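## retry 2 of 3
previous attempt timed out at serialization; input unchanged, resubmitting
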Amino acid sequence: MRFPFQLFRNVPKFDFVGYRKVGFLITGLGVIVSIASIAIHGFNFGIDFTGGVVMEVRTEQVADVGKMRSLLDTAGTQNASLQSVGDGTQVLIRIKPEGTENQNQVAQGVRGALDTGYGSKVDYLKVDYVGPQVGSELIRGSIIALALAMGAIMLYLWFRFEWQYGVGGVLALIHDAILTLGFYSISQIEFNLTSVAALLTIIGYSINDSVVIFDRIRENLRKYKIRPLGEVLNLSVNETLARTFLTAGTVLAALIGLVGFGGEVLFGFSTAMIFGLLVGTYSSIYVSATVLIYMNLRNEDAADATA
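## retry succeeded, writing output
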């Protein structure tokens, strides 16, 4: 079976640069909508950022997580997130208080629901209370981690290529980060430390895609010294399109599997990764690559040839 490989048997000739203004319009609208949603609706922060209760329990047999979840679907404990760990007899319960309830009341509510309704002995191995102060420190640390990652990537691109590539790459990463944050805000999927990991993974994938295109652009600038820059950019993107298509398709297949079979715990991470994969693939073409046409990108050999 040759499809989809025969789709790229020959190098396609899509005019990405010619439609760059349409791409920039889509990018601008996406950024505006994302920022507006963040400003109006904010995020559905998890207990990592807002504070809450983390409990680890153990049952005599393999835990029936579904039954536990239904028992905790009551007033005061309805926001519980359950995850089976270890050999299946241990369950991690994470829950944030609602309204005027304090953390101790939430923990007692979980104990009462499981002790009276589960039907077998439940041992409580650990009960931790996460305060709001810890949450604010994690928010600050997450912002610093994202900023440092983008700064390091820009320096890497600057030293490996030219400063123009660094600007293009970081603009794409900012675009990806804002749109992914907008996705969390619009969908109101819980935003926790796993979401920060998803953001870092997305920008890592996006910059990897951009570096492949940048490398081909640099190679073609040396090869076609008198060709207009727009043609070189188009050729480079088209020559790497097969690799982009196949890589994105492979990652997407794995993420769809996680969405379908990863359960509630991985659902938010997986859906955000799918969105970020699509956004990152788009930005590597219509942000990091096409923006170079406005930066008079030329290597020294090309500049000498056209002087």
